[in-house]
Amino acid sequence: MKKIGSLLITGLLALTLSACGSSSENAPAASDGTGSSNEVVTYTIGTDATFPPFEYEQDGKYVGIDIDLIHAIGELEGFKVDLKPMNFKGIIPAITAKQLDAAIAGISITDERKQVVNLSDTYFEAGLSLVVHSDNDSITKPEDLKGKVIAIKKGTAGSKKAEELAKEYDITLNYFDSSPAMFQEVVNKNADATIEDFPVISYKLAVDPNANLKIVGERLTGDQYGIAVSKDNEELLQKINDGIKKLKESGKYDEIIKKYIGTSAK
Amino acid sequence: MMSSWQVIVDAMPLLLQGLWITVKIVVISLLIAFVIGLITGLMNTSSNKILKFIATLYIDIIRGTPLLVQMFFIYFALPAFLDIRIPAETAGIIAISANAGAYIAEIFRAGISSIDNGQREAARSLGLSQVQTMRLVILPQAFRRMIPAFVNQCTISIKDTSLLSVIGIRELTQSGEIIISTNYRAFEIWGTVGVLYFIIIYGISRLSRVLERRLSLK
Question: A196, A244, B20, B193: least surrounded by Cβ within 10 Å?
Answer without folding.
Answer: B20
